[in-house]
Predict the structure of Acetyltransferase.
Amino acid sequence: MLTLKGKDIYLRALEPEDLDFVHAIENHESVWEISNTQTPYSRFLIKQYLENAHKDIFEVKQLRLVISNYNDIALGMIDLFDFDFKNSRAGVGILIKETSERQKGVGNEALGLLIKYCNTHLNLHQLYCNISEDNQASLNLFSKHGFEIIGLKKDWNLVNGSYKNEYLLQRIN
């Protein structure tokens, strides 16, 4: 099992026991904008996903890790997606499930651990992320870790009947 340890949290691989946690996140409408989700996911589909979560990033082109505290409470998830070995890059996404756990440094520590993992184990040249123009907390978080805004995608996402702009951020080693 992959374990990346920090001061207050660690990142770990998904486990079958994470079914309820992942199901709750994927079906919470407040995060659908971030994940670009349109419909709920069944427990059956998430169980199938978890059964295949052990597959190698080189095969499935993504890696999803659970952000956990040292009391073994799952706080959120952090993802690498669109993994491109040839061009040495990947996208990054992060979500802290409970709003009460946000703005406490959990995301900051998790992103730092993931960047270190990408540099040390995957030898990635660049990471990128997509952040809604009005998501100041995420813009601050990623900027703190060396991500720079390189573009604005106008009217990119339709959210509750209105189009929203989205920034593209990039971090090059």
